[in-house]
Design goal:
4 helices, 11 strands, alpha+beta, disordered N terminus, four-stranded antiparallel beta sheet, 18% helix
Length: 217
Amino acid sequence: MMTLRAKSILIATSLLVLGGCASDNEIRVDQGVGITSTLSACPSVAIPDYTGDITLFNPANSTDASAIDVVANVTNLRSACNDQAEKIYAVATFDVQARRTNASGARQVTLPFFSTVVRGGTSVVSKRIGSVTLNFADGAYRAQAQGKGAAYIDKAAATLPADIREKITRKRKSGDVDAAVDPLSDPAVRAALARTSFELLVGFQLSGDQLQYNVTR
C-alpha cells in the first residue's frame, strides 16, 4: 500500500467539496541493470495521506483529547482488477478498525468514505461516496467492518499509444545512438505515461475540520 503525501492535500480538499493484474496490456520495462518494472492498464490503489483515519468527538465542537469519542482507521487495503473488457473494472477492499472510549451499551456508528479515480496524479475523473457501519457490542471497546470501492476506467484511455510502447520496449544494441538513453527520460514518453496513469483512491470522507485535525495533530 502506498501513500500520496504530495497529492493528498490537493485531492482531499477538492474532494470535500488493484493488486495483481496480469494481462496483455502490461509492459515490462527492463533497464538492463537488474531493475524491471511492469506498467499495467490497471489502476494503482492507495489511501491519500490524512484521509486514512477519522476521529469523532463528544461534544462535536471540541478537539480536546478528553473529548475523543471514536477513532477509526482504514487498514488492510487490497485490490483486484479485470482489464479484459473495454472498460477496466477495479475494486479496492479494506477493513475499518475502530475503538471507542466508552464501552457502555451497544452502539452503531456509520462512517462515510470516498472512492475516487484520479488520472495523471491530478485530474479527478470520478468520485463515489459509500459508508461502513461499525457495530460495538455492549462492553466492547473495539469494532471492525469492511468497505469496498469500485470503479470503471476506459481501457483506451489507460493504454499507451503504439509509438510510445515501441519507444519503451524496443531492444537497443550497443552502438545505437540512443543505446544509453533511458526512454523514460523522453518528455513525450513521460507525458504519455502520465495521461494513461490512473489511481483508485479510497479514504474517509472528512469534513473540513476533520481534515484540518488530521493534518495538524
